[in-house]
Write a structure and sequence with these properties.
Blueprint: H1 2-14, E1 29-35, H2 41-54, E2 59-64, E3 74-75, E4 83-84, E5 86-88, H3 92-97, E6 103-106, H4 116-125, E7 129-135, H5 147-153, E8 156-160, E9 162-163, E10 170-171, E11 173-176, H6 188-191, E12 192-195, H7 197-209
Parallel strand pairs: 1-7, 1-8, 2-5, 2-6, 6-7
Antiparallel strand pairs: 3-4, 9-10, 11-12
Helix pairs in contact: 4-5
The chain binds zinc ion.
Length: 216
């Protein structure tokens, strides 16, 4: 009875990737935390990294140098729950800087080059736990940068959701409320709203049917 019970809890525990770090031998893997803006991706990344730190694991955090919305050296989520990070200009720099670490966190991964995929796999092959957070889609609903390939090659993928600002359903697309084709726009809160599929489609139709020259 007792044995059966502990086996049950072991199996339950294995279902949750953040609890599966107690390996007998050093073994690396990739976790991806993806979703739209305002879905709590960075908060989830920070939560996982802080737990590793508490366990005295050596943690390094990287983000693309392009992401300078807040402090240069902090991964900062919107609720000011911050953690120190190193801005890097290209993903290959992470390989050079990742020495003597158990866990590597990468935030805003969608802004990195495609090489990030092989970099993360190389790190995991070295025995490092790699946790990557990023937008899985751009404001048009298209897969964003290296994220799709990362999600395909990762052991674990967690998709977190925001709340649709128009209907209150779960949202998975970051709809941009201002015009312009530039993919990278920082300064979020005013320019984006999380929307569900149906509200996003409605918003796109409205935009198509109201050309700039008809606007008051
Ligand atoms: Zn909606």
């Amino acid at each position: 009875m007792r044995g059966k019970s502990s086996n049950y809890f072991y199996e339950q525990r294995q279902m949750f990737l953040e609890n599966s770090t107690n390996n007998q031998q050093p073994r690396g893997w990739i976790e991806v935390v993806c979703g739209s803006m305002f879905s709590g991706k960075t908060e989830e990344l920070i939560r996982r990294l802080k737990r590793a730190k508490i366990a005295k694991q050596r943690v390094e955090i990287f983000k693309p140098a392009i992401d300078v919305r807040y402090d240069e050296e902090d991964v900062v989520s919107h609720d000011a729950n911050k953690i120190r990070s190193t801005p890097v200009t290209s993903s290959s720099n992470i390989l050079l800087l990742a020495n003597d670490v158990d866990v590597i966190g990468i935030d805003e991964a969608q802004f990195f080059d495609e090489e990030l995929v092989s970099v993360c796999n190389e790190l995991a092959n070295r025995g490092i736990r790699v946790i990557v957070a990023g937008l899985d889609m751009d404001f048009k609903g298209q897969p964003f940068g290296p994220m799709p390939a990362l999600m395909a090659t990762a052991e674990y993928v967690t998709k977190v959701h925001a709340i649709c600002m128009r209907c209150g359903d779960l949202a998975h697309i970051s709809h941009r409320t201002v015009s312009g084709e530039k993919l990278v726009m920082l300064g979020e809160t005013e320019s984006y709203e999380p929307l569900c599929r149906s509200c996003f489609n409605k918003a796109m139709n409205e935009q198509e049917n109201s050309p700039e020259n008809q606007k008051q």
